[in-house]
Write a structure and sequence with these properties.
This protein is of the alpha/beta class. It has helices spanning 3-10, 29-40, 52-62, 75-84, 109-129, 155-174, 191-197, 201-211, 220-232, and strands at 20-24, 44-49, 66-69, 89-94, 133-142, 179-185, 240-243. β4, α5 (109-129) and β5 (133-142) form a beta-alpha-beta unit. The chain has a seven-stranded parallel beta sheet, with helices on both faces. The N and C termini lie far apart (50 Å). It has a single domain (15-243), classed as Rossmann fold (3-Layer(aba) Sandwich). It has nine helices and seven strands; from the N terminus they run αβαβαβαβαβαβαααβ. α2 (29-40) packs across α9 (220-232) and α4 packs parallel to α5 (109-129).
Length: 252
Amino acid sequence: MSRTDTVSASIREPQLAGQTVVVIGGSSGIGLETARLAGAEGARVVITGRNPERLKQAALEVGALSSAAFDAADFDRIDRFFDELPAPFDHVMITAGGPYYARLADIDFEQARRHLDHLLLPIQTARKAAPKMRPGGSLLLLSGTGGRRPALGGALSSALTAALPALGKVLALEIAPVRVNVIAPGFVDTPLSASLLGDGLDERRNQLRTALPIRRVVGPADVAALAIHLMANTALTGATYDVDGGQQLLGD
C-alpha cells in the first residue's frame, strides 16, 4: 500500500455529519461532553440546561446551534421546547437530573416525587420528540449501575435503575423506527459526583484508580464516546449498555 493509500485509509468521515443532536441537560458533565463530541463528529448541537449562565458558556464551548434554559422537570416547558424546535432532528439524549439517596425514615416525599419525574421525563420526551425525528434516529436515556446492588438509602435510586431499562425496551417498540437505548454508567468523575461526595471525592477517586480493572476513573468522555456510537450505529435499539470500568466486578 502506498503512503497516499495509507493516509487516505486513516481519514474517516465524521460519524454524525449533517445530523442534529439535542442534549437535555447539556450544560455540564456527561451532557456537555456528549454535545462537544457530537459537534466534533459533524453534528449540529442543541443543548438545554437549568442554569442560564452555565448554559450560555457551554453553548459557546460546543458551538451550539441553539440553547434553551429551563428545568427539565417542568413538562409544560419541555412540551414548548419541542414544539418550537425546528424539525427534523436526529438524536435526543437526556442527562438531566441526579440520584436521590435517603434512608426510609428520612425520605422527603416531595423531593422523592420530583426525582420520580426522571422516569416520566423520557416518556414525555419520546411522545413530543419522536414525531419530529428522522427514522433511524435515537433517544438515549441515562441510568446507572450503582442501584443494581441493594444498599441502605437506595430505595428510590434502585427502583429507577431497574425501571429505565424496561422503559427503554418498551419505547423502542412504541416509537420505532426511532431507536431507544439506555446508558448505565458507574461512578463518573463529574461535577455532580463532586457535589454528592464533597470532601470524600479524592478518596473515592484514589480507591477506584487502584481497584478498577482499567486502573483509572471513568470520565464524561468515556460515556460520551458510547453515546456517539449508539447514535451512529443504526442497528442498536432496545438495549442497556454499561460503562463502569469493571466496577460491578468488584462487589463494592
